[in-house]
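**Sequence, structure tokens**
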Amino acid sequence: MKVIDHINNAKDTVVSFEVLPPLKGRTINSLYQHLDPLMEFKPSFINVTYHRSEHIFKKKSDGTFEKVEVRKRPGTVGICAAIMNHYKVDAVPHLICGGFTKRETEDALIDLNFLGIDNVLVLRGDATKNEASFEPEPNGNRYAIDLLKQVDNLNNGIYQEDDIREGFRTHFCIGTAGYPEKHFEAPNMESDLRYLKAKVDAGAEYILTQMFFDNAKFFEFVDKCRQAGITVPIIPGLKPLTNKKQLTIIPRIFHVDIPSDLLNEMNRAKTDEDCELVGQEWLINQSRELKKAGVPVLHYYTLGKPAIIYNAVAKVF
């Protein structure tokens, strides 16, 4: 089932989760162990992140260095198929611009279609560690809207090969990302909302937000979206703080503010366990307020902390 159908058919707020593919060398069982307890809450769908290849330099026996391409977390497409087969739950693979040519993207979409996966979350993706700013692959998509248009083209039977006439029309439900505190590359919120509306106009059926810790900023973002003519469902993305290092890492990497009350509570915590309890309680309160406000979905970024997510969701649903 498509994400938009889950939303439209629900009588109340539903729950969804997001997971990382296992590190290369680990089995799918490590992911099942992560998800098994969370399945108690009957998630409507599960997102699976995608990680592009990186270039690293390995020292050779003669003392010189060799540039090697590695992908630390492969398998997004296979994992989505495994989740749907193992749990009978819809999976939503992330689809990114970075690391793909347009033809490779098309082939990946065809694979997803053959596997019965009819949802994608379209993202530009981050720059690699050695890039000052994002650079697409040669003949790749530069912006998320370009990738979104390619998926929409395939939904209309338009392929990369010009000689394909009346090709099979896929039926992907397309999600896109939203930023309650503005994408860090956008000059201001007004321009960011224009980019977001353009993606909705190009075919995005719902918006999934980046993490945030201040619900007031989410509600303000929704209001601004509606004022800008964006009418699709907006799903809040939630993640707990679990340690004090995140107080500086998250604002620096994700450009997200930490509310003063949460910051003070984390700083008062004496141990990592205390920090996790503070983060869990904040997540519970966030979730309850958002659910009371009638958000369509509460989407949890589990990312290695399923126990905290489990304890929070158990208090909300």
